Amino acid sequence: MNSFLILLACAIVSFRAAPVLAQTEVETKKLLERLSGTKVPFDDARLEKMKAQTAAGNWQGAAEIATSDPNFLNVTIKQMAQKMSTRDESIAAGLNDFVTFFMGVVRDDMDARKLLTGDFFYMADVSKLPADITVRADLQTDFVQNNNHYSDLDRVALDIGAILKKESGQMLLQTSTNTIVYNPDPAGLLTTRTFINAHAIAGTNRRPVEFTFREFMCLGIDEWSDTTVSDARIGRDIDRFPGGDHTKFQVSCKGCHTGMDGFRGAFAKWNLIDGRPVQFDAMNEANYSGFSDGIAAKMNGNGTVFFNGFVTKDSSWVNNARGPANESLLGWRGMADGGFGVKSFGEAVSNSSRFSQCLVKRAFEAVCRHELVIKDRKGYVQEQVTRFESNKYNLKKLFQSVALSKECAQ
Amino acid sequence: MKTNLISALAIAAFVAGCTPSEMKSATPSFGLGSNDKTVGATLMSAEQMVRSMAAVTKTEINTNLNNEYNARKALMTGSYAVNSVTSPMMISITNLASRFCEATINREAALPAGERRFFGQVDFSKPVANLSPAQYTDAVEKLGLSILGRRPTPDEMAILTEGRGDFENAIPAANKTQAAQTKLLLLFSCSGVLSSFDFITI
Questions:
Q1: How far apart are CA A209 and CA A366, in angstroms?
Q2: N- to C-terminal Cα distance for chain A?
Q3: pTM for the complete prediction?
Q4: Distances (CA, A) of A356 to A10, A34, A231
Q5: Does the beta-carbon distance from B32 to A408 stay under 8 Å?
Q6: Chains A and B: how many Cβ contacts under 8 Å?
Q7: Residue A111: Cβ within 10 Å count
Q8: For residue A265, what are the β-bridge partners?
Q9: pLDDT in tens for each of the 410 residues of chain A?
Q10: DSSP alpha helices (H): ranges in A2-74?
């Protein structure tokens, strides 16, 4: 019996191809599977409709049918966003406000730049839930203070993409009055509870900058490091003589810190207190715990390491990623020299050409399931970026375009 | 239905030395302009697998299946990397697959033969010995078509047939006339295909 099992197991895991479908049928099925992120049977009713489109030469029409599959949102977009939502970048992350925000922007054909600038959030329309499913939906206890609402919603039996509804504003808890107030500095995904929880916990608020670049510019910190620009914004907590050697600071530490520290002022009024995001201006309390003079205390922590370092006094930020090494890499456009708060930072990032390139990479890797190295495929990436931006930053169309490209199959 | 046999199948794959890399190189592909799955084959996540199982078997994810998924998903996910496959992962996937197959078989058994997708030639009221080789082949081919998008190869079919023989030989004499054994054979065959490496990669 054991030998039988071994033989059978090996046979089943190594099934060889014996296609019975015509090439067009195979390609149509593959297109649907790529965009939905799931396997479909050969007798799926939508394949006939897609074949009718492809027979007429309308592959775009076929791709549109594929993106209308609920799993395009519930699997492809959801998983891509899950991976971007947490520090460990795992697809095992559960549903949260970051993920549903992403799904909503795609579903509602919004300009993708809203991902970093939008002043709204998505929650379930409870009237659309099946009668036997209960989802906690108290704004204070189930959205702002923890993830209850989204945890309850995270069921494979639900078509989550279909039951999400957009709500204006982003919410914070004003603890002095124990009421929900609007976030005065809303910046889409960057000011979701999930993103702030993941990256503003402890630390020095450099991580939100690092991960903004990592997730939305597809750049690790070492890739946009630049030692040739000013170090005037580098905080007092960074040693200028590490190991007694100023050269090490100049050729190494400075490269990353000049960029991060320049931008991190955008998050100066943000902190994570008792596991919940706090924006100082929303608290209406002069001496809020965790803040000093209206600035998150951690921004100016360890101030004796290098006393002449930069002291953060407001939410201003300056763009130190405009040196020769980064100007063409990042492709800043519009108001990108500096600003105040996270929203202006999100606007600068989302208007850069690198943001569009990064979304092409994200879409490509989500549907084509292999890596796209931007610098190695510049021509292809630029072609997709041009189309994406001319389509008003429509993510659904970007996914369709990428899935149809011949590069996707290579 | 018991799923011990199905779990054993997954373990056997690893005992036999069917490592992920070997599986990958032998796995076929469909692609837009390419039939080479060795490029870009990645493991599906737990959610992709459960939704795919539901799609190819056309089975609604009810509370029982949802609960089974919740109990298994922690072992089924974490990475798209093919080399992240582990034995506990394969067992979890196979167990979940067996639940979908169980639902599919029970659903089809209650339908008139002409309305079934997979088991149109199976008489569920008869012992497994009454299932002719041609009828069994028909069922396996239809499973392959819907789940993998292709028919099993002659080699695979021969092994499945040989497996069927071993399965029947292992049935205690007192149980050989039970019609339930027919369902178990089909559960075994369906679960194997639905948890195969070809299915769980995309």
A1: 24
A2: 42
A3: 0.90
A4: 44, 21, 28
A5: yes
A6: 197
A7: 15
A8: none
A9: 444 444 445 444 444 444 456 778 889 999 999 999 999 998 999 999 999 999 999 999 999 999 999 999 999 999 999 999 999 998 888 999 999 999 999 999 999 999 999 999 999 999 999 998 999 999 999 999 999 999 999 999 899 999 999 999 999 999 999 999 999 999 999 999 999 999 999 999 999 999 999 999 999 999 999 999 999 999 999 999 999 999 999 999 999 999 999 999 999 999 999 999 999 999 999 999 999 999 999 999 999 999 999 999 999 999 999 998 899 999 999 999 999 999 999 999 999 999 999 999 999 999 999 999 999 999 999 999 999 999 999 999 999 999 999 999 87
A10: 2-13, 23-36, 45-55, 59-67, 70-71
By Cβ distance, the residue of A1, A10, A409 closest to B13 is A10
**Residue A310, beta-bridge partner list:** A235
Pairwise CB contact (< 8 Å): B31 & A19:
no
Interface predicted TM-score (ipTM) over 0.85: yes
Mutate to test the interface with B, among A1, A6, A14, A54 (most CBs of B within 10 A): A14
Sequence ranges of the domains in chain A? 29-68, 72-169, 210-350, 353-409
Closest CA of chain A from B110, distance in Å: 21
Find the helix or strand (DSSP H, E) in which A190 lies: none
CA dihedral in degrees (B189, B195, B197, B201; nearest 10)?
140
User: Alpha-carbon distance A273 to A291, whole Å?
Assistant: 10
Picking from B63, B65, B202, the nearest residue to A39 by CB comes out as B202
Cβ-defined contact of A8 to B51 (cutoff 8 Å):
no
Question: CB distance A8–B9 less than 8 Å?
Answer: yes
Q: B155 to chain A: which residues are within 8 Å by CB? A: 11, 16
Q: Is A292 helix (H, G, I), strand (E, B) or coil?
A: strand
**Largest pairwise CA distance in chain B:** 54
Residue A334, judged by CB atoms within 10 A of its CB (0-12, 13-18, 19+), counts as: exposed
- The full set of domain ranges for chain B reads 4-200
Cα(B172)–Cα(A372) distance, rounded to whole angstroms?
56
